[in-house]
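Dear U.,

For the methods section draft, I wanted the exact inputs and outputs in one place so we can describe them consistently. I've listed the two proteins in the order they'll appear in the manuscript figures. Please don't edit the token lines directly; just add comments below if something needs changing.

First protein:
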Amino acid sequence: MHDFDGKAGTWDYDPMKIERARVVAEAIAREVPLSHTMRALEYGCGTGLLSFNLNGQLGTITLADNSEGMLAVVRKKIADSGVSRMTPLHLDLAVDSLPPQRFDLIYTLMTLHHVENTDQLLRHFYELLDSPGYLCIIDLYKEDGSFHDSGFSGHLGFDQKELTAKLKDAGFSDVRFRKVYTIVRPARSYPLFLMVAEKTAD
């Protein structure tokens, strides 16, 4: 079973995740000129908390994840809410072909640190964006490894300079960061950044 499949049913019960999605959506709206004509892709959508917060400010939203459990929750939420401009998509850009759609905005929340080949993923994001287009990454600043359990094999957050260099290598320009949220735990706190990069030309 996919690691996140078993967590999907109770994912939205966590008040922190509810608050985080709201705060991040507000930050994206401040940093990117959203419009009702925008075609958006959320990569690693989980249960769609962030996209449901942005839904009223965008045109169409494709909610992509590689967890069938998460996507099942997304499908039910879409059906229950009656929205017609949100479409779930099973997608793992580490192994799957690029979808045929192109987008004006791509955003991803707490997904990048799970991706082994971040260089490849950033190049895929660049290809999937029309020009002009925006990429928003929300993830952990560099941390000491205490955020996840000892068996975690992903990235321990990201250094801003290193991630900026990767984005520019992929073709992006005007890369900017700001602190957007802090996950508070009993032992310590973990700040998250919002990174916005632009695709200005093919």
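Second protein (the one for the lower panel):
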Amino acid sequence: MIDHVSVAVGDLARSAAFYEAALAPLGYKKLVVRERIIGFGKDHSELWINLRENLLHAPHGSGAHVAFRARSADAVQQFHAAALARGGADDGAPGRRPYGSGPNVYYAAFVRDPDGNRIEAVAFLPPD
């Protein structure tokens, strides 16, 4: 079981605004604010964004990929829209994906945060 994940960001204020908006539809909020790090979660900080100034010159970010579980397809769509409205880049519009295991449908959306990290929201929907 993973307790938390950290991703590097080049501009803490810009990234805080991005993650606060994008993660709100998934039930996450800003829980901890420190000088160079901010934690987001539901009950405890599950995602930390850490200031790394040298990322400002990295063309594709740190290469991180973080996936958050969503409760519904609607929450996945809201995540995607909020992320794009806050400076994220589309990396896969909301929709069914041909991967996953089990009987449920893998419904996901992918965005790149302002530093190039790949962020996903996924809901496992009952089959049609």
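Candidate sentences for the figure legend, describing the second protein: The chain has a mean pLDDT of 90. Residues 5-53+62-125 form a domain with the 2,3-Dihydroxybiphenyl 1,2-Dioxygenase; domain 1 fold (CATH 3.10.180.10).

Thanks,
Y.
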